[in-house]
Amino acid sequence: MTTAIGKIVKSNTHIDYVCQVYGPGELVAQPLPTDYAFAEFVAIELSGNGSGNDSSPGALIGVIYNTLLLNPDFGSLGPRLSPRGEQEIFTPDYLSETATLLGIIALGWREDSIYRQGVPGLAADVDAPVRRLSNDEICAFHLDGAGRLSLRYASVLMGMNNPLVPQLLLTLIDRLVTLFPGQSRQLQVMRNNVAWKSIVQPAG
C-alpha cells in the first residue's frame, strides 16, 4: 500500500514541481517524514490524458530532491504571547501558514500501466495528489520494454546544475542495488562514475 504525501502547489519548470505535504487534520493517517525523505520515488497523479477515452489518466513519476520549511514565526519580533497548544484553538489560521514543501523532479510517466522514462508530454495540475511509490512500482519504472534495467533519467538529473544531484544519484543507485541485486555489478560501475564526477567536476 502506497502512502499519500501531499499535493502540488506550483511548478518551477515543466519537470520541476513543488509539493506541499499534508498537514494535521488533512488525512486520517498523517504521512511520516520517512515517507517524503530525500531521494524517495513518488507519483504525481494526472487528472486526464486528453485522449478522450476512459483509460487511466496515469501519473508523472518523480523523485524528491529537496525540502523547504515555511514558518511565519521565524524572524518575528518579541516573544510568542500564546503557547502552540492555545494557538491551535484560538488562531488555527496562523498554524496553517506553516508548511513543508518538497522539490520533485519528474523522471518519466505512467500511462495505462506502462512506465516510461524521459520528459513527459503532460504536466500536472495544481492540487494534483502526490504519493510514494511502492517497491514494485519502482522496479516497473526501471525496466525497459525488453526487461532490462534502465536509468535514462540520469542525464536529466546531471544537467540540473544542483549540488544535491550527485548525492541524489548515489542514493538512488544504492536503492536500486537492493531492488535489483542481479544488476549490482553494473550499478556499482555507474555509482563509481557518479562519485568520481562529483569530486572532479567541482574541483575543475
Describe this protein's structure:
Mean pLDDT is 86; it is low at 49-54. A six-stranded antiparallel barrel has the order 1-2-5-4-3-7. With 204 residues, the protein is of the alpha+beta class. It has two domains: 4-141, no CATH class; 147-204, no CATH class. It is built from six helices and seven strands, in the order ββββααβββαααα. β1 and β2 (16-21) form a beta hairpin.
Low-confidence stretches: 49-54
**H and E order:** EEEEHHEEEHHHH
Largest sheet, strands/sense/barrel? 6 strands, antiparallel, barrel
H/I helix tally: 6
The structural domain count equals 2
Give a summary of the structure in a few sentences.
29% of the residues lie in helices and 25% in strands. It has helices at residues 84-90, 92-96, 135-141, 154-158, 165-179, 184-203; strands at residues 4-11, 16-21, 41-45, 59-70, 99-111, 114-117, 129-132. Helix 5 runs antiparallel to helix 6 (184-203).
Entry keywords:
29% helix, six-stranded antiparallel barrel, 204 residues, 25% strand, 6 helices, alpha+beta, 2 domains, globular, single chain
Compile the SSE list and pairings.
Blueprint: E1 4-11, E2 16-21, E3 41-45, E4 59-70, H1 84-90, H2 92-96, E5 99-111, E6 114-117, E7 129-132, H3 135-141, H4 154-158, H5 165-179, H6 184-203
Antiparallel strand pairs: 1-2, 1-7, 2-5, 3-4, 3-7, 4-5, 5-6
